[in-house]
């Protein structure tokens, strides 16, 4: 299956050459979870703070489906 | 510690010791208590009976980190209720070092076209002199700050109002200098700039030379607390050096709010802006890197800040367009107006600083004007022209300067995002329910800083709760509002909350710093009690001013129009909104 991924803030270094938030496609085995995706992208799990799947916050064990829209963030804050 | 009372009816002043009843109040707690004690609730905000009060927090002016906040209070011309707005600036620290716990501006001169400056120095105690400042009016603030520094010396701190305040706009802030003498740090919300201008005051210049500094009752305890606070700020991923805030500024939030479907777009008609990444903190950082040929990390707005979240936006030729472009401003003037041209967005921000406008209220007003068809959504050049109209005081400019609600009324628009007359900031209540409760119930009108439930609802700070669920959110908002009222009185920037809500020793450090300064034995329970008392005082003033719990509601369209992408409405029951203060 394929999912659409967007990396933000310092995580853009795991997909260099584009502005943070620029979507790219990732091919994953059926039944993969958010954690599998993060491992495949070689992002250290401990650095991940908040993940969205289709605009909903999800935990690492959330299963992914073909066509999902995923956003991955390190800790961010502001106001 | 002193109270300095300046009477602008006859340009006299009085310096007294802080009375017993105010001894353990500072910052927002002090400004709100003085407003409640001295301003008749039905006074016209721009009339002689309103007062403008400045107060630094408990640890402002000490060596505590990230603690140079100054609170400004009065009755708001925008909401008709009590107002406290605060800013980070050397001005706050200087007032504290001069041992001025409260500066009260009252009365009103008879001559309407004359403006005055106050020059406050240390002469054994605070001393106030008056100078004619009429020649500095009706000009962009960046043109008048340099001659003021030239006149009074490089070491002074400068507070001022811009043209927006001189015209009496409900949208006008009180401006303070940043560390590079830019007129750019605003106590922006609620129209307190117009209150200052209504007193005939254009500048308040502070010269701290010779001043004794803040007295600290228990230096060892203060020092212990300060170290814990520094450790928390330097450790937490959001606040640490080269962490989120220091690298990308507050505009780092554009992308996460967009992902959450909670970034109000084109006058609150969607929770997602397709071009959001172009106006985000990451885009500002990358654009600067290309234009300046190196990575540029952010700077401090005020002395002693170790978070350092203020960015600068540079033009293609490397010159500065504006500093600082905050999340709220990038959102209000950007996504909410459908604008994604970063240079024009930075220019809009710069013009707000030049004319003394609140960037949030300006962006939400422009968006309502766009909805009315005055100019198209996304037309950044036309938006720039409208801000110039505001700065020039043309009839259209005056309508817009009256704020979002008035503009909506003038053009017959129903989608007007305001609570108690103040526009809703950059988190969409239909997608993030807790913050909607804060907007609805805050004593300030719609104000994200009054109870920032975004921390657990979106950012995963202090736990995680589902942003789309209304469950338990009244209690969450109440707890945040009370704690915030304390932090707004401490002198610390609210951003310390990211670190101290996650790191318990940092929270303890804040309390120890303050106990060190005051010689008190406050506990974590006292923090919440103190905050709740402040809220009750504010609430009572509002009720007497005619703003009752019936005003604790979001605009009707938010209950009726589903917001994409979640297609949800604001479904928090009215009883839950009423419970926030009923159970305080």
Account of the protein in words:
The complex is a heterodimer of chains A (79) and B (584). By secondary structure, chain A is mostly beta strands. Chain A is 9% helix and 28% strand. Chain A has one domain (2-73): Beta-grasp domain (Ubiquitin-like (UB roll)), CATH 3.10.20.30. Chain A has one helix spanning 34-40, and strands at 2-7, 24-27, 50-53, 56-58, 69-73. Chain A has a five-stranded mixed sheet, with no helix packed on it. In chain A, strand 3 (50-53) and strand 4 form a beta hairpin. The N and C termini of chain A lie far apart (37 Å). Chain B has three domains: 2-206, Aldehyde ferredoxin oxidoreductase, N-terminal domain (Aldehyde Ferredoxin Oxidoreductase,  A, domain 1, 4-Layer Sandwich), CATH 3.60.9.10; 246-416, Orthogonal Bundle (Aldehyde Ferredoxin Oxidoreductase Protein, subunit A, domain 2), CATH 1.10.569.10; 433-494 and 521-582, Aldehyde Ferredoxin Oxidoreductase Protein, subunit A, domain 3, CATH 1.10.599. Chain B has 23 helices and 16 strands. In chain B, the strands form four sheets. A six-stranded mixed sheet of chain B has the order 2-1-6-3-4-5, sandwiched between helices. Chain B has a six-stranded mixed sheet with strand order 8-7-12-9-10-11, with helices on both faces. The two termini of chain B are 31 Å apart. The mean pLDDT of chain B is 98. The A-B interface holds A 6, 8-10, 12, 19-22, 49-50, 52, 55-57, 71, 73-79 and B 236-239, 243-245, 247-253, 255-256, 258-261, 272, 276-278, 280-283, 286, 309, 326-328, 448-449, 452, 454-455, 458-461, 464, 466-468, 494-495, 498, 565-566.
């Amino acid at each position: 299956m394929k999912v659409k991924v967007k990396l933000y803030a310092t995580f853009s270094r795991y997909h260099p050459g584009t502005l943070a938030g620029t979507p790219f496609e990732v091919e994953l085995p059926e039944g993969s979870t958010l954690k599998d995706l993060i491992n495949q992208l070689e992002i250290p799990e401990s650095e991940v703070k908040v993940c969205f799947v289709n605009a909903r916050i999800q935990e690492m064990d959330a299963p992914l489906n073909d066509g999902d829209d995923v956003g991955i963030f390190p800790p961010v804050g502001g106001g | 510690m002193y109270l300095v009372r300046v009477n602008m009816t006859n340009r006299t002043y009085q310096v007294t010791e802080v009375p017993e009843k105010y001894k353990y109040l500072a910052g927002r707690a002090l400004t709100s208590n003085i407003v409640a004690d001295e301003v008749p609730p039905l006074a016209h905000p721009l009339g002689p009976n309103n007062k403008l009060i400045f107060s630094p927090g408990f640890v402002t002016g000490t060596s505590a980190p990230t603690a140079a906040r100054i609170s400004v209070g009065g009755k708001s011309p925008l909401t008709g209720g009590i107002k406290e707005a605060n800013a980070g600036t050397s001005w706050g620290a200087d007032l504290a070092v001069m041992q001025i716990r409260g500066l009260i501006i009252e009365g009103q001169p008879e001559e309407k076209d004359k403006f005055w400056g106050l020059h406050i120095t240390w002469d054994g105690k605070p001393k106030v002199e008056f100078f004619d400042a009429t020649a500095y009016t009706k000009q962009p603030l960046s043109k008048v700050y340099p001659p003021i520094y030239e006149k009074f010396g490089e070491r002074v701190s400068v507070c001022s109002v811009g043209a927006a305040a001189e015209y009496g706009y409900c949208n006008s802030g009180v401006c303070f200098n940043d560390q590079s003498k830019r007129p750019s740090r605003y106590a922006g919300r609620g129209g307190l700039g117009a209150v200052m201008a209504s007193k005939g005051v254009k500048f308040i210049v502070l010269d701290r030379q010779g001043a004794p500094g803040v007295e600290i009752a228990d230096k060892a305890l203060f020092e212990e607390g300060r170290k814990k606070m520094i450790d928390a700020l330097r450790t937490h991923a959001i606040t640490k050096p080269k962490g989120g805030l220091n690298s990308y500024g507050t505009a780092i939030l554009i992308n996460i709010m967009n992902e959450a479907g909670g970034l109000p777009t084109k006058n609150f008609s969607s929770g997602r802006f397709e071009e959001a990444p172009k106006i985000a903190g990451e885009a500002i950082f990358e654009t600067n890197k290309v234009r300046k040929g190196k990575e540029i990390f952010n700077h401090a707005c005020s002395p002693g800040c170790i978070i350092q979240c203020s960015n600068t936006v540079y033009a293609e030729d490397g010159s500065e367009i504006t500093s600082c472009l905050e999340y709220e401003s990038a959102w209000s003037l950007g996504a909410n107006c459908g604008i994604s041209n970063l240079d024009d967005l930075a220019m809009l921000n710069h013009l707000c600083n030049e004319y003394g406008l609140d960037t949030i209220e300006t962006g939400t007003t422009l968006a309502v004007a766009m909805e009315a068809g005055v100019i198209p959504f996304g037309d950044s050049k036309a938006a720039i022209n409208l801000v110039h109209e505001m700065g020039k005081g043309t009839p259209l400019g005056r309508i817009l300067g009256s704020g979002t609600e008035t503009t909506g009324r003038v053009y017959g628009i129903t989608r007007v995002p305001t609570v108690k007359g103040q526009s809703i900031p950059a988190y969409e209540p239909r997608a993030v329910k807790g913050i909607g409760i804060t907007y609805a119930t805050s004593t300030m009108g719609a104000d994200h800083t009054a109870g920032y439930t975004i921390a657990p609802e979106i950012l995963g700070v202090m736990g995680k709760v589902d942003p789309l669920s209304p469950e338990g959110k009244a209690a969450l908002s109440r707890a945040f509002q009370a704690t915030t009222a304390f932090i707004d009185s401490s002198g610390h920037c609210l951003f310390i909350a990211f670190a101290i809500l996650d790191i318990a020793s940092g929270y303890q450090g804040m309390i120890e710093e303050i106990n060190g300064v005051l010689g008190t034995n406050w506990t974590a329970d006292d923090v919440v009690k103190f905050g709740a008392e402040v809220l009750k005082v504010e609430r009572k003033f509002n009720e007497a001013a005619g703003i009752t719990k019936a005003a604790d509601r979001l605009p009707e369209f938010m209950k009726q129009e589903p917001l994409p992408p979640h297609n949800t409405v604001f479904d928090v029951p009215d009883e839950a909104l009423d419970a926030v203060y009923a159970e305080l």
